[in-house]
């Protein structure tokens, strides 16, 4: 097996960094308890403007205040975080006196909170922290403020990852900040928070989960990476591992439940397993990384000019992240299947497909599965 390869020139070590996760129906009601356990006395609640007006947001705030925690609220969240908006957001909060962050929302909200926490704790030019080659890729000197993430979409897995994605507006490029300290201290995953997701949001986020799972399973093994001169230089995204392979059932869960949740937002069984899948897939790609579909998604999302998808009524064109990864995924997996035969046969089995025959046949079946899924979810196929 590739995982057993060993040489002096390639890496032979992987790191498993799993956050504290609280999962279950109604788990979001316990945010106050978790914040108090972390020693938070004054929290910045990061939440989008629309969500801030809901009963859920009020419930989260009440839970915090019931534990004697003072709450400040930040609502200037963009659907796709931009560098300029993050810097402006930091200017608005830098003089507040908070000792913890709570993010309530989807991946964009959680990533915004991660970046605000980074700049608030260790003030610097944002580009100092942005990944190379766009930025300088500097590491913060130590841990950030405690942060609790409560995802309200079953997609990005941002509550479990050590990366924050953002657009660099002047360069028309999507990149990110990756560092172990960005990972939230606690993830509170409550399937009930996702029942208000409209169909296209359900489709996009669910497709993102599917791609996270497949890409992390089929990434190059960690043993294919060059050996690092010292442990501090080992990359966050180190390649696939035997631990990541344990999350393979996520592929099957998404395949089984995404259409059900798309058709009926109150299908609690579907919501339960999609939210669970999002978190597990986040753990998978948070260590292994992603590959071709996500790399191709960045220019697709960054160069959009005129598409206005249903349920994303923001007044400007946008390709939601999950959709921007799903379109190239179909084509990428078809092409890549012969080069990672064992792993793509595993993916095919999880999708309920026949995994026999030549590797290219397996790739074609995965491609056909994707095309049919995108059509059923009314997502563009090219």
What does this structure look like?
The protein is an alpha/beta fold and 382 residues long. It has 2 domains: 2-13 and 196-376, Dehydroquinate synthase-like - alpha domain (Dehydroquinate synthase-like, alpha domain); 27-189, Rossmann fold (3-Layer(aba) Sandwich), CATH 3.40.50.1970. It is built from 14 helices and 8 strands. It has helices spanning 31-37, 49-52, 55-66, 83-93, 107-121, 126-129, 199-218, 242-245, 249-263, 268-288, 292-302, 321-336, 341-350, 359-376; strands spanning 20-23, 42-47, 70-74, 100-105, 147-151, 163-168, 173-178, 186-189. The strands form 2 sheets. Strands 1-8-5-4-2-3 form a 6-stranded parallel beta sheet, sandwiched between helices. Strands 6-7 form a two-stranded antiparallel ribbon. Helix 7 (199-218) runs parallel beside helix 10, helix 11 (292-302) packs across helix 12 and helix 13 runs parallel beside helix 14. The mean pLDDT is 94.
Distinctive features:
382 residues, alpha/beta, Dehydroquinate synthase-like, alpha domain, Rossmann fold, 2 domains, six-stranded parallel beta sheet, two-stranded antiparallel sheet, 14 helices
> Treating each run of at least 4 consecutive H or I residues as one helix, how many helices?
14
What is the CATH C-level name of the largest domain?
Mainly Alpha
pLDDT below 50 for ≥5 consecutive residues: which ranges?
A: none
> What sort of overall outline do the alpha carbons produce when their principal axes are compared?
globular
Class based on secondary structure composition and strand pairing = alpha/beta
| Mean residue pLDDT | 94
**Percentage of helical residues?**
40-55%
| CATH topology name of the largest domain | Dehydroquinate synthase-like, alpha domain
Strand content: 5-15%
């Amino acid at each position: 097996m590739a995982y057993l390869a060993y040489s002096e020139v390639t890496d032979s070590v992987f790191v498993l960094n799993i956050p504290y996760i609280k999962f279950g129906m109604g788990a979001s009601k316990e945010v106050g308890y978790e914040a108090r356990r972390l020693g938070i006395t004054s929290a910045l609640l990061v939440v989008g403007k629309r969500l801030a007006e809901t009963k859920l947001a009020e419930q989260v705030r009440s839970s915090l205040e019931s534990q004697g925690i003072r709450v400040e609220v930040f609502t200037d969240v963009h659907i796709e975080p931009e560098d300029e908006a993050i810097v402006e957001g930091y200017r608005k909060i830098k003089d507040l006196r908070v000792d913890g962050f709570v993010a309530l929302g989807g991946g964009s909200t959680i990533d915004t909170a991660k970046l605000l926490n980074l700049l608030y704790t260790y003030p610097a030019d944002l580009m100092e922290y942005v990944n190379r080659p766009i930025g300088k890729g500097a590491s913060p000197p130590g841990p950030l403020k405690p942060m609790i993430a409560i995802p309200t979409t079953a997609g990005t897995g941002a509550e479990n990852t050590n990366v924050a994605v953002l657009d660099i507006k002047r360069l028309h490029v999507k990149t990110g900040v990756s560092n172990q300290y960005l990972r939230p201290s606690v993830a509170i995953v409550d399937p009930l928070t996702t029942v208000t997701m409209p169909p296209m949001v359900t489709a996009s986020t669910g497709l993102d989960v599917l791609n996270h799972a497949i890409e992390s399973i089929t990434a190059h093994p960690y043993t294919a990476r060059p050996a690092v001169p010292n442990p501090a230089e080992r990359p966050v995204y180190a390649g696939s591992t035997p631990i990541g392979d344990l999350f393979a059932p996520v592929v099957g869960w998404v395949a089984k439940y995404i259409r059900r949740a798309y058709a009926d937002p109150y299908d609690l069984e579907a919501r339960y397993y999609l939210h669970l899948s999002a978190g597990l897939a986040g753990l998978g790609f948070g260590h292994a990384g992603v590959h071709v579909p996500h790399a191709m998604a960045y220019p697709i999302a960054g160069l959009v000019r005129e598409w206005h998808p249903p349920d994303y009524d923001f007044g400007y064109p946008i390709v939601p992240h999950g959709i921007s990864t799903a379109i190239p995924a179909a084509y990428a997996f078809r092409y890549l299947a012969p080069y990672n035969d064992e792993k793509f046969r595993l993916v095919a089995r999880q999708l309920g497909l026949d995994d026999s025959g030549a590797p290219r046949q397996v790739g074609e079946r995965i491609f056909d599965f994707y095309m049919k899924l995108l059509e059923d979810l009314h997502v563009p196929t090219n």
